[in-house]
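Supplementary Note 2. Why include the ligand at all?

Several targets in our set were suspected to adopt different conformations when bound, so apo predictions alone were not considered sufficient. For every target with a known small-molecule partner we therefore ran a joint prediction. The input for pyridoxal-5'-phosphate is given below.
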Amino acid sequence: MPYPADAPHSQQLFDRARAVTPGGVNSPVRAFGAVGGTPRFIASARGPFLVDADGREYVDLVCSWGPMLLGHAHPDVVAAVRSAVGAGTSYGAPTRPEVELAEEIVDRTPVDSVRLVSSGTEATMSAIRLARGVTGRDLVVKFAGCYHGHVDSLLAAAGSGVVTFGLPGTPGVPAAATAATLVLPYNDRAAVSAAFAEHGDRIACLITEAAPGNMGVVTPEAGFNRFLAETCAAHGVLMVSDEVMTGFRVSRSGYHGLDGDGWRPDLMTFGKVMGGGFPAAAFGGRTELMAQLAPDGPVYQAGTLSGNPVAVTAGLTTLRLATADVYRRVDSAAAQVQQLVGKALTEAAVPHVVQAAGNLFSVFFVKDGDEAATSVRDFDGAQRQAQHRFRAFFHAMLAHGVYLPPSAFEAWFVSAAHDDAALDRIAEAVPHAAAAAAAARPDDEGPG
Ligand SMILES: Cc1ncc(COP(=O)(O)O)c(C=O)c1O
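The joint prediction is reproduced in token form.
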């Protein structure tokens, strides 16, 4: 039996929340704004399942937007965190687990040295400051549709041309903050070459998601990351590979582990999995670059809770548990979900494209008339979606006990805890959701 469409306890909490918090949520996408209806307030989670305030259980395909690689409340992570909390929660002085987490990151990735921070936003903001400080240049290149946190200079919308200086993507960001940001179409080598030919000696860094997951999953075309690295090197520009989402999730060493043959970024950013569900993130790079940071160098960067011992313990325990077998299980669960969803949508004649970058994947609901589309390569393509079909699909999945990202522009996440019980639940839900997507009409806004 599907769950009822209303969710009275979540609704009550949402009403209270809206009275005291903007939009009732502490991060916008949680509000169900893109799909309509009442966001589910979560009471607890274990393994692949969430339980909401109305006592309903869902298979979780959000996994906290990436961090929960091992599933929720992994007993070893919980035990390690309990023990860390008992030893005091913050000292404002260095600790052994910080050293060990930095060593673990350096061991798994191409960086030699890392600075720990508390969020992915802080990581990318700090990496850009470092790049500007080291190069003495101001311009930053980013790709339309890539998200790197809510850093002023990166909340830049593309203008109308192919190579455009950014316009503020939100009120509150001064035009001056984005005027030094060049926004380019993803996967477009000609646009990159043109921008570097014209502005190369003024560009401090190019920042890119190692594999974009914030416009849905868009795979870098073969050799694109290497091309970016080579183009940057030729112009003395630092390449910042943002692995906040992909790092330690799509492989032991992140997307670079799948795509990094023979090239390496100058700087990298990490977050999500490395915090094990707590606020921890990092940026890193070659020793001589990182040495330009305070206290050794002149580029200032700091944080009261950076390297917080509880967060670091959760992250370190998670990474140590993230063995080859864990990645095999995550990869296999991701492949099975893609297969189940693809099959159900095909059988219901819903035009769609499933795209994956390692075990990170998403489903694009292709517009009627665009059935021939076989891949989405950039933000323009991602925006040509039949969002009404996604909304209908989302709500039918929710009613059948599967919690998807509440937006057509997000990656779907699984964990090593997504076992047969979780996959069976998804298999039962998808035919209903595919039928709902097939029946959806363009003016369906979702529940009010
Ligand atoms: C690729 C990427 N970079 C940076 C961020 C920002 O991280 P945070 O939300 O921890 O600030 C995100 C968040 O989703 C992300 O996906």
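Residues 65, 119-121, 124, 147-149, 209, 214, 242, 244-245, 271, 281 surround pyridoxal-5'-phosphate (CB under 6 Å). The radius of gyration is 22 Å. Comparable summaries for the other entries are listed in the accompanying table.
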